[in-house]
Amino acid sequence: MDPEIGGGIAGSAVTFLLVKLDAFATREWNMQENIRRAVLNLGRELRSIEALLRDAASKKDPDHQFTVWIQNVRDQAYAIEDVLDLFKLDQESIWRRFKRRHSINNLIQNIEESLQSIQRTKERYQTMTFTRIRSASNNTDHHVRVEPAVNGNLDTVGIEEPTEKLASWASEEEKQRLEVMFVVGMAGSGKTTLVRSVYEKVKHDFESHVWITASKSKTKLDILTLLVVKFGCPITQRADVVGLTRKLRKHLLNKRYVIVLDDLWVKEVWESVKLALPDGRNSRIIITTRRGDIANSCRDGDSIDIHKIQPLSPERAAELFCLKAFSRNGRCPSGLEEVSKSILQKCDGLPLGIIQIGRLLSIKPLTRNQWKIFHDSLESELRSNGELSDIVKVLSASYKDLPYHLRYCFLYMSIFPETNPVKRRRLVRLWIAEGFVIEKSGMTLEEVGEDYLKELIDRNLIKANELDFDGLPKSVGVHSLMLKMILPLSHEENFCTVCSGAGRNLTENTRRLSIQKEDFDVSQDLPHVRSFFSFGIGKVKIGSNFKLVKVLDIQGTPLEEFPNVITDLLLLRYLSLRNTNIKSIPRSLGDLRHLETLDLKQTLVTKVPKSVLQLEKLRNLLVYRYNYMEGVPPFDIVQGFKAPKKITALKNLQKLSFVKASVQSRLSRQLRMIQGLENLTQLRKLGVVELAKEDGASLCHSIGKMPNLHSLSVTSLSMEVPIELDAMTNNPPALLQRLYLKGPLLKFPSWISSLHDLVRIRLKWSSLAENPIAALQNLPYLVELQLLDAFTGTQLGFKSGKFRQLKILDLQQLEQLSSIVMEEGTLPCLQKLIISHCSKLGQVPGGIENLIHLQMLLLYDMPDPFVTRLRRNGGRLRRLVQHIPCIHSFKQRQLEDLS
After folding, report:
1. pLDDT at position 670
2. Which of 92, 313, 333, 660 is deepest in the core (most CB within 10 A)?
């Protein structure tokens, strides 16, 4: 394993441990004095070691001894974490049930002795580090890069369209100003190849042109010096940044120039170059970088744009692969199609992987057996001594560039199977449970975690698999080749052990377990396991040996009853039994005092015991299921749960859904749970079902005390019982982004019009006589609007200049609706229009032809004349929708493609 990567993991372990030590020393005021003193000593020693690790991060080619030292640091960090958690167990008064040979004092003494050994070797390694750093400074450091071929077109397959687009941008002469384009993509995505193609095509249109490889090791002075030299300017030996900036600016003044900065890693390098560039004369700067976060932070006006590299389509990927693997004729032999397709899938559209693997296969015999051997050994070929190790070296540079606090977060992706994208919110909750998310003043842990994820996505290490309506990722994953890089790293560094296919031996020191196979029995003693995941469809037997487990995620396993052993896991922070068949949870769940997330979504649980009130650290309580049915969703599709009356005592709750409001005694109104919700001032998401009309005012009062509320869902007691929300007029939740109202509304709540941040609203079975469009049309950030049996009128009108950001408009079961009018200039961003079960609507909305960004028109069980008028051959209104790329009509679930 690359020692630099291993050092990064050790550094992350120490960084997170120091945060934990500080919190521990502050919180555990009743520690014995000798234990407190020992903990403080450990902290001081670890800070010294952390500083050494940071210094060593820039050291090149560390020797074997240093690698062993790093592993010792990591192991001792893990051991200290175990001791802190054992102390927690001691505080829970079950120490006598936890059979270990040493007391906490003895454990700390053992660790102190080990750290003293590390201390004795530290100075020697510091000397070695500084010596090597000085030595390394005399040599230019280059990250391993696979340079594109410029003497041919083979490597430019699939980039013809973006090449033309960027070349057109570079040659445009309308705006007499300097313009900048960041070309952003993950390592190996073809950024340099694309920009090289553009550069060679346009460089002679400029008076001056220069290509500079920035790389991480080059400083501001280095880059400015290279630019001055390449532009042919004289330079003195003692040139500084200020002098070079003036010289470069003077040389480029009144010239039209193009500069390429390839492989930018540091924002300050670009900032210094920018100061040397005169504006005007249609000059162009093109910057390639895998750091999308840098590109986003530099985008301070319309003169700076970003082009994001997309993976090759399956067709173009296959074309590139065949050109490399079968260089003689570019065609795959008939006997190798299946194995070639499987190999290509592992490349996941990444040109680097396709080219390198294709080149290697081109020299192998064209036999099915040889290619199958290569296919099955691909993971080993990617390792440090394998024939494809350059791929990993290119990819790993992005990992090495991560700050310590993000390395564990990224490595966490090794837990999840490649075929199982992980939901964004789930991942953030898991990071929090693991202790990876560090508190920031003025932000919730969830907000900090979202920032972590955004940075990892911007750095092109994690990819968004599916986007939500608001552009945020619903689920995320990592590239197939990136996963193959981090899996062995995760195992060798004892971060996570993945059990899939053939059995893998578990060691006593295993810290995280990811079960990706059917029927797994964990019966051996694994005292150090912190996290346990099951992704198989078979049964998983959990033993009583996981005393230090903090994360237990066994969603989707065939469970019928709550495993009693869970209530012995007293340090548990995260418990997910989602998508299981359990029907109840025991009272002893209240013993899990550290629990932060309880996820019982899509289970048969309809009630939680009073003992849940003991879970004072609980942040997420998710207990509900959807009763999916074919056709139109029923009113009671969401089944919530009966909560204890004093659920409002859980003041750290961030998410509570879906709680039943109808189960409290009608004889004691003061005890109604709905009235006490005002105490949950930290709530960000609230879901309430079975709301009685008379409880509407109480709910409004409670919601007014929730300043952080981002999502609100309210369902009435039945389709006949109205929702009364008028009492919220004085203090609506200012940060609300998502609003779901299901049930009759006697009138449209006026306060909704003041929700500046609202991005989605869904009104279902509202049966409004007044048109809600006028009250919603000025909301500045509204992206999605759904009206399902929400309006009893005959006409909907959308006025010019309104709904400026709306992208999705969903109209369902508007039985009286006979016409829709869309004035020119309305809905300028609309991309998706759904019209369903509107039996009296005779034709598409008037003005639909002006919606130039409309990409999809979906029709469900619409009258035959409506559909006939849109058909390709002879449809009377076909001309109005011919600009829409996708038009689908469903009749009794049968699809007719009208595109």
Report:
1. 36
2. 660
